[in-house]
């Protein structure tokens, strides 16, 4: 099994087990929801995240479920829209789910995670912006590396392998893009390559 899918499986089991114990197993199923990007710019990342979660759920249920309870999952499309992600998270809270998986986009989880926190529901995300887990939110869990982990590797590659002297950074004007810009500049420091130009774009922009 792919390591990321295995990690998702462990996370599902842990949060569902804790939630089941807290509720006295009054429900016959453990309800979870995937709130992910199935359309729009984040469709690839959201679909992969959903597929990993669904594979884990299938394997857990085949092995007997969580304390004998089967996991029942539903999926909602955020359309890569932070406002939609927040509304879907509010609905999941109203539906009394045990855990929420997604959204994956950093900008969306930054908006929606306040709702899951307010309800005390574990919320797992693939978002990479470092600020996601710097909020002191005890209910947010990340399944991916942060940009602070990835960008130093990119910086070393540009400096040591490509031997670049200067670069331009083109980034998306959202939490993910701005976080990546900050991380790469921090990783490069005052050495080479030097960032000579910073160009922002909007998600979905086609006219440059």
Report on the architecture of this protein:
The protein is an alpha/beta fold. The chain has two domains: 30-142, Rossmann fold (3-Layer(aba) Sandwich); 147-201, Rossmann fold (3-Layer(aba) Sandwich). 47% of the residues lie in helices and 19% in strands. It contains six helices and seven strands. The chain has helices spanning 3-23, 43-62, 82-94, 106-119, 147-161, 175-188, and strands spanning 29-36, 70-77, 99-101, 123-125, 140-142, 166-172, 194-201. The protein has a five-stranded parallel sheet with strand order 2-1-3-4-5, with helices on both faces. The chain has a two-stranded parallel sheet with strand order 6-7. Helix 2 (43-62) links the parallel strand 1 (29-36) and strand 2. It is elongated.
Counting structural domains, the number is 2
**What characterizes the major β-sheet?**
5 strands, parallel
Q: How much is the radius of gyration in Å?
A: 19 Å
Side by side, the strands of the main sheet go 2-1-3-4-5
CATH class of the largest domain: Alpha Beta
Q: In whole angstroms, how far apart are the ends?
A: 41 Å
Helix and strand content put the structural class at alpha/beta
Approximate strand percentage: 15-25%
Keywords: Amino-acid transport, Signal, Transport
Signal peptide: 1-26
Domain Leucine-binding protein: 29-208
Pfam families: Peripla_BP_6
Features:
single chain; 208 residues; alpha/beta; Rossmann fold; 2 domains; five-stranded parallel beta sheet; two-stranded parallel sheet; 6 helices; 7 strands; 47% helix; 19% strand; elongated; amino-acid transport; transport; Leucine-specific-binding protein
């Amino acid at each position: 099994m792919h390591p990321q899918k295995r990690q998702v499986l462990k996370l599902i089991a842990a949060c569902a087990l804790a939630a089941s114990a807290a509720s006295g197993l009054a429900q016959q199923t453990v309800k979870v929801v995937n709130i992910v990007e199935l359309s729009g710019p984040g469709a690839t990342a959201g679909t992969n995240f959903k597929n990993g979660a669904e594979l884990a759920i299938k394997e857990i249920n085949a092995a007997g479920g969580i304390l004998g309870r089967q996991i029942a999952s539903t999926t909602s499309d955020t359309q890569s829209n932070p406002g939609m992600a927040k509304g879907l998270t509010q609905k999941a809270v109203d539906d009394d789910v045990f855990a929420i998986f997604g959204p994956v986009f950093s900008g969306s989880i930054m908006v929606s995670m306040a709702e899951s926190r307010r309800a005390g529901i574990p919320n797992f995300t693939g978002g990479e912006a470092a600020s996601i887990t710097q909020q002191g939110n005890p209910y947010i869990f990340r399944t991916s590396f942060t940009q602070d982990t990835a960008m130093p590797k990119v910086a070393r590659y540009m400096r040591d392998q490509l031997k670049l002297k200067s670069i331009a950074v083109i980034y998306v004007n959202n939490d993910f893009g701005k976080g990546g810009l900050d991380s790469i500049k921090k990783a490069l420091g005052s050495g080479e390559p030097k960032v000579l130009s910073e160009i922002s774009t909007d998600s979905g922009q086609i006219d440059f």
